[in-house]
Amino acid sequence: MHYPKTRQKLMSLAVAGACAAAAAQALAQEAPAKAAEPEVQSVVVTGLRQSLLSSMNLKRNSDGIVDGIVAEDIGKFPDTNLAESLQRISGVSIDRSIGEGSKITVRGVGPDFNLVLLNGRQMPTSNLGDLNGRAFDFANLASEAIAQLQVYKTSRAETPTGGIGATVNVMTARPFDRPGMHSSVGVKGVYDSTNGNLPGDIKASRSTTPELSGLYSNTFDNNKFGVALTGSYQERNLGYNTAAVSNGWKGPFRGDDNSWGTIPKGSATNPPGASDLYSVPQNLNYNFNGVKRQRTNAQLTLQYKPVDKLVTTLDYTYSENKIQTKRNDISAWFNFGGSNSSWTGGPVQSPLIYKELLDGTSDIAMGGADFATKTQNKSLGFNAVWKPTNDLRFELDTHHSTAESRADSPFGSSNTLGTASFSRGDTTADFSHDFPVLSIAGADFTKAPQQVTGSVFTNGYMKGEVDQTQVKGAWKVLEASELKFGATVSEVKNRSAFSNQQRDTWGGATKPSDYPSSVWHPESVRQYFDHIDGSGSPSLFNQFYTFNFAQVRQLAAAASGKPELYLPKTSFDHDARTTEKSNSAFVQFNTDWDTKLPIRTSVGLRYETTDVTSTALVPAAVGISWVSQNELPITFGDPTFTTLTGKYHNLLPSFDSDIELTPNQKLRLSLGETIGRPRYDQIQGGTTLDSLVRANGGTGSQGNPALKPVKSKNLDLSYEWYYGKQNFFSLGYFRKNLENYAGQSQFDATPFNLHTPVGGKFWNEALANGCTTADTTCIRDYIFKNHDGAPGVTRGTDANGHATGTIVGQPSDPVANFKINSFSNQKAASLNGLEVNLQHMFGNSGFGVSTNYTYVHSGLKYDNAKLGEQFALVGLSNSSNVVGIYEDKNFTARLAYNWRGEFLSSTFDGSGPNPQYVEAYGQVDISIGYNFNEKLSFQFEGINVGNSIQRVHSRTKQQLESVTQQGPRYMIGARYKF
What we know:
By secondary structure, this protein is mostly beta strands.
């Protein structure tokens, strides 16, 4: 089921990869017979070279374009993180979180549109960092139980839908793949240097943490029974420090537009011209983050073969990823009164120096956070393969899998406790270097002691569930042909919910005297950014205070007299639930053609239909009150669930062909269609109304469960040359034409049938007595004068003697109209690219190199000189890998460099429709292994040994979004095989 089709005439190469031996044996029975077999050549390789050889044969022997990584040995995957392994495959780039690979982008297609399978089964997703996304987080899975990663870059009728960029199949070890007893135990010590570069209040007590792993696999009773048990536990203490314009950039504005009061005042160098676009910073923030992580993985696999023609497998996979985060920060909020500023010039302007003149009473904000999350993944599956004859094969596979993320702290899944000293004078931000330099005049922490201001306590929850049953068959129709067929029934559920307990008392919630001075701990800024250009500036405001979050929270709760406001809510304000029920069937015909140049073709067709039911908890609107000239706030009752539905179907053809130009050269052509389902927030049910209605109506938002998935029409061409036992070169071209991307749309509706006094009986009476529709003051005065005390009318008088009060819509009044913002299928894009791969081993020297480069291009790019919301492809970037290896009987060494070019990561920042570009990033990793004997081995690894930093900017390089300093981590370990 899970392995690509293997050609018998190339079987001798696959035999050399011991990790793929069992798969090759199983699939050889399916492969069409050949008239003649080439002479079998013995190839003996071990360790890392064996892994590279098996990966090469996986690519060579597949239908379509497939890349992969095969474990060096059972329980010994080449990388400690699966995403870090995947990035070494051409066309695969990764997003990092806390210094580890997390999500993948493949061939310019972002994480939401890549499908991840576990042993051929669709996996649920859960990520509190993206409550409404579909991206799989590889940080949840340890690598010890993984036997193989397969990346299908072309469409296959037999593969579940959802992957436009690629479908990634994560395969775990099974006892029948390796008959006999195999067991090992491993231990590592991890030293993360980043933990040492943190303030004391958030630093973990130790920078060195343990990792333990074990594996046991055995078969019994003449290989009739099999059991495999793997487990691992890993701890990591780390830190990272970020300088950021954390609320985004205000703008862009035209130079002749001063409607927001943002035009710089006073002396300015090279200020924006009338037609230039410019932006100004919302704030400047330095934050310091200490993180502890504990990851537990386990898998139990039981296999039983009652007869030779029937193999059954029952497996259970469990993972838990617990993360605790502590943060301190210092920031300054700008009020758009820039003076004595200098600018970059050009049609898109950015400040190099941005200064605001203040009177010494503004706040120097110093916040803190202390929260924790827990993500659990569980998967229970059953598989049965039955071969009644040599020409016929059936397979049943069913599973129930869940992914659940929740808060793991009494303080919620995320929080912020704001504190401040109100002593900020003139404030300057210097954006001329990689590091943004904040300068503050007049700060006096003695005169204006620190105090708690506002706070936010968030409680987030997400759960994904997949119930899926697949039935497949394969029938060898002729000597060189095979018919594959099957059907799938699946139900995918997603629930995402959250609530906020927020106090917007940023001007001060309590008094400085409520806090002993001993709770504030002096710190300096510069030392935590010493690897970023510009942090050494003598103008840097280099002092701030950290604090123990739990201690200060308790003091603030006591001082406020409202302790419940300093804890997260126990119920959810927002709760969205989506169910997708899909039925599908496929047929695929594979055949070999006896032509001068051997040709293999695969033609497939998949049909799929999906029903979507989306329900959301939304505040129930119960009335509209007219309280001032043009303000009609909605009165909300208890939240209620509302439901929307949708349905779509797709017919997805696929065609693969490969031609053997010579026994060592292949030319491949693949055509097909794939789909990627919309994000959950785009199909979220329920209508949420904005709280304030105007005289001409109101606004709101809702998802659209009837959205069609993004569809991609794909073309792939590749040339492959296997010029040695372990050497190959490949060149590939791909093109994707994508349609049905979701864009913003708007429609008119009357949700909740809310009655508005605008246009009602009293309104019309006022118009008949001399008022105009534009003079709402006249209309209100008339109603209060003539109908005070009538149903819905409550009059008051302000200090100037004018009538005030409320006028509530009555059942006889018109129903209010709302402009509802939603999503519709309206965007299209195309992208194309090239992939180059080279793997070369230098004879018997032990040295080798594996390298690749991917170029991706699309005409649909973000226009930095354009105002308003834009659609552009995110994640699109060039990438490259160079891996040098050395291996002999005792030593294995690898030096890997991974590079990803600049790419657009988002079209929105914290302020609005502004781009976020992740700048080009390169990382160096090393690993060295030593085999003491056949059973005992030692290993040393270094991750990010070059101490690379990551920087994100907006429309220009000077419009910094964030720059993060992390650091290297090192691991030393031992592994013993029994």
